[in-house]
Task: inverse folding
């Protein structure tokens, strides 16, 4: 999503931040397209050197971090010519690992919410610039997987992030469960190679904490669902950092999803929401409590947040990440 919700104004040109991000370093293992084979899914992945990442993020750097939506600004102009389509596979549901705190009473537009243990802020570096997004710990075989936006793990197209950390239940600078560093980052080939916003989802696998505990052992994890029905009710969460928000507290939106009619080729859906940059990567929950998308982008003054359809390609990415 865009920092001032001005995505429509930057459809055909890279933002300065995104141009810088293309020069960032990273070791990727990527291929042209997803295979659809759950036993050997094809995704874009990178191992992460987490040395010094937690210490890198001082309070001053966190406050000064740029909302990560700047990295997605040119995606609509690129994806308009993409030959890829969002394939729907068999409906898949993965139950939550543990029950976490939730807030299901959010109104139509963004409203401050109580902290949720498994939802937090994501901080990372791309191309020498520091960024901030939102993310959510999800149930996984490794107990260490965070769902976020593709543009919060990879510049799309281009390099993977450095200094990536996840701070669950962040509030006003407090990190009640500590800072979790990443050991690997994963996204769809369509995002990593083309910046295709129709596939704008990423997953980060976190290292154990100093006590050897995995992330979801400490904060719990949301269940996930793929290839679900469209046009249903969602509740989304995030840490909007651009005005009028300050990125210090969790906010939520709630509404029925409708298709993006401005760019129907994205196959995305939107819900009524005023959250701004910094909320990128925050989770969308179905009425069942299962995560089914993320905050991705918005148009200028539209008060709608759009998220990618979690179809077969994104399920393939999750399948690999949650077992890494």
Result:
């Amino acid at each position: 999503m865009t920092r001032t919700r001005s995505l429509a104004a930057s459809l055909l040109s890279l933002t300065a931040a995104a141009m810088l991000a293309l020069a960032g370093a990273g070791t990727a293992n990527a291929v042209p397209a997803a295979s659809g084979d759950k036993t050997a899914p094809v995704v874009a992945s990178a191992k992460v050197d987490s040395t010094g990442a937690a210490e890198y993020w001082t309070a001053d750097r966190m406050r000064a971090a740029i909302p990560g939506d700047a990295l997605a600004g040119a995606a609509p102009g690129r994806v308009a010519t993409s030959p890829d389509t969002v394939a729907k596979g068999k409906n898949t549901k993965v139950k939550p690992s543990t029950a976490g705190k939730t807030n299901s009473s959010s109104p139509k537009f963004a409203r401050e919410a109580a902290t949720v243990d498994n939802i937090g802020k994501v901080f990372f570096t791309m191309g020498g610039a520091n960024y901030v997004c939102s993310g959510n710990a999800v149930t996984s075989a490794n107990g260490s997987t965070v769902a976020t936006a593709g543009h919060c793990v990879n510049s799309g197209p281009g390099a993977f992030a450095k200094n990536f950390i996840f701070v669950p239940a962040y509030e006003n600078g407090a990190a009640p469960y500590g800072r979790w560093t990443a050991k690997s980052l994963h996204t769809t080939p369509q995002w990593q190679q083309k910046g295709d916003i129709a596939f704008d989802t990423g997953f980060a696998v976190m290292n154990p904490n100093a006590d050897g505990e995995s992330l979801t052992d400490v904060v719990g994890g949301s269940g996930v669902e793929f290839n679900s029905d469209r046009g249903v009710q969602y509740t989304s969460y995030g840490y909007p950092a651009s005005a009028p928000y300050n990125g210090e507290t969790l906010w939520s939106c709630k509404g029925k999803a409708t298709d993006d009619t401005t760019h129907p080729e994205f196959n995305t859906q939107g819900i009524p929401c005023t959250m701004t940059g910094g909320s990128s990567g925050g989770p969308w929950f179905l009425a069942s409590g299962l995560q089914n998308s993320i905050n991705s982008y918005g148009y200028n003054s539209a008060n709608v947040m759009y998220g990618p359809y979690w179809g077969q390609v994104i399920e393939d990415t999750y399948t690999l990440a949650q077992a890494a």
